[in-house]
């Protein structure tokens, strides 16, 4: 297994973010229980907001696969 980071930025549609945040958090908990996600947290600066995910998986392709299933 290797460790990968994934940084993402929220879309400008606050309504979309707020609507899907509970599903997003539930999905992240699922990944934690499976052992694929080591940590997750917000990233905020003066210009944007988003998050950082820390994966323990076999490949970059697996990160992409898991990320595309995220409701965000």
Shape: globular
Strand order of the largest sheet: 1-3-2
Within CATH, the superfamily carries the name Dimeric alpha+beta barrel
Measured between the Cα atoms of the first and last residue, the distance is 25 Å
**Tally of individual helices:** 2
CATH topology: Alpha-Beta Plaits
The CATH top-level class label: Alpha Beta
Low-confidence segments, given as residue ranges, are none
CATH architecture: 2-Layer Sandwich
Q: Which structural class matches the secondary elements? A: alpha+beta
Quick check: average pLDDT?
93
DSSP helix fraction: 40-55%
Q: Outline the biggest β-sheet.
A: 3 strands, antiparallel
Q: How many whole angstroms does the radius of gyration measure? A: 12 Å
Question: Which key features would you list for this structure?
Answer:
Alpha-Beta Plaits, 3-stranded antiparallel beta sheet, 42% helix, 2 helices, alpha+beta, 72 residues
Describe this entry's structure for a reader:
The structure is a single chain. This protein is α+β, with helices and mostly antiparallel strands and 72 residues long. It has one domain (2-68): 2-Layer Sandwich (Alpha-Beta Plaits). Helices cover 42% and strands 35% of the residues. The protein is built from 2 helices and 3 strands, in the order βαββα. Strands 1-3-2 form a 3-stranded antiparallel sheet. The longest helix is centred in the middle third of the chain and has 21 residues, at 14-34. The N and C termini lie far apart (25 Å). The mean pLDDT is 93.
